[in-house]
Design brief:
The protein is an alpha+beta fold. It has helices at 3-10, 17-38, 74-96, 98-107, 118-159, 177-189, 193-198, 291-315; strands spanning 55-56, 59-60, 63-67, 70-72, 163-173, 203-208, 214-219, 226-232, 249-256, 262-273, 276-286.
């Protein structure tokens, strides 16, 4: 059910008129787009591209995610990455213009602005996002982030402080729990933007801000609009998800809008398992956060963390 239906029909007392207008004008077409274009049917397995392989150099990594009550293969997650990657590439080409984008890709040895396979899509995104740079990304995404913030303000108001948890388990080999977290924090501290961006096509900007926080522009779940926020790893965090004593390695953080408003909290937990690790990834969203995007964020987490774990294993 679309959130707008509940708001417009019920017209809850105490909600300001700007909120009702925002939900009506912005959220309804936004969520309909998500439902029709980007969100796999619940419980359905997306069609697999059998040409996608998960091999980098001499490393062949095994990674399996668990969410929505089932086991999700690495290949399924890669198919989600491919679909989102093609969409991200189209957005940048439309922004730069086909002629300029084609010239940039040709100079990098890429023959088409319409990538087909996953490896090709990753290379295209690396070239185009690299050309834009942080300032170009902010300019490109400025109006989209403003619209997204309007939506999330409505979600926060409707949630009235209530939360819901998006959690997945991810089992991967190649590196242990502490080794992965050390790699991630080193990558953040050294401001390795390329490694941060490469993990997910919906990452537009991930960089260390001057105050030590992580500045992020990304599309949450299957959202057509990105959000701009800052992740604080060092503050006073109180996520609803409590620590599991069987996961000794913890990452806790708070996500805030540029104006300081809290939009979510994070508790990611890790332990050694088999030849690698098990990650229990948890993000706290406002209760009224739209269901299609909430479910889509399972795929987002599985994509970015499996790619980051692979990168950490490769570097170890």
């Amino acid at each position: 059910m679309l959130l707008v239906a509940a708001v417009v029909c019920a017209r809850p007392r105490g909600l300001p008129s700007w909120l009702l207008r925002s939900v009506t004008v912005v959220m309804n077409p936004w969520l309909q787009w998500v439902r029709m274009e980007t969100c796999p049917a619940i419980g359905a397995r997306p069609a697999l591209d059998r040409t996608v392989a998960w091999t980098v150099g001499v490393i062949e990594m095994s990674a399996t995610a668990y969410f929505e009550g089932r086991e999700v293969s690495r290949q399924e997650v890669q198919q989600w990455e491919l679909r989102r990657g093609k969409r991200a590439a189209r957005l940048i080409v439309a922004h730069l213009g086909r002629e300029r984008a084609s010239s940039l890709l040709s100079a990098a040895g890429l023959t088409s602005i319409e990538p087909q396979g996953l490896d090709d899509t990753r290379r295209v995104l690396a070239v185009l996002k690299g050309e834009l740079g942080p300032d170009g990304i902010r300019t490109m995404m400025q109006s989209r982030c403003r619209r997204s913030q309007t939506v999330i303000k409505a979600v926060l108001a409707l949630s009235r402080g209530r939360k819901k948890l998006c959690t997945i388990d991810l089992v991967a080999d190649g590196i242990g729990a502490q080794g992965y977290v050390d790699w991630f924090m080193h990558t953040h501290e050294s401001n390795d933007e390329a490694e941060m961006l490469a993990a997910n096509p919906d990452h537009w900007l991930i960089r260390r801000a001057a105050d030590g926080r992580q500045e992020v522009i990304e599309a949450t779940g299957n959202s057509p609009l990105p959000s701009h926020f800052f992740i604080d790893f060092d503050g006073d965090h109180r996520p609803a998800l409590q620590p599991d004593p069987t996961f000794p390695v913890q990452m806790v953080a708070t996500a805030r809008f540029p104006d300081g408003r809290i939009v979510g909290t994070v508790r990611h937990q890790f332990r050694d398992e088999g030849k690698g690790l098990r990650a229990r990834l948890g993000i706290e969203f406002p209760r009224a956060f739209p269901g299609p995007l909430f479910r889509g964020h399972h795929w987002h987490l599985a994509c970015e963390f499996s790619n980051w774990i692979e990168a950490a294993a490769r570097a170890s």
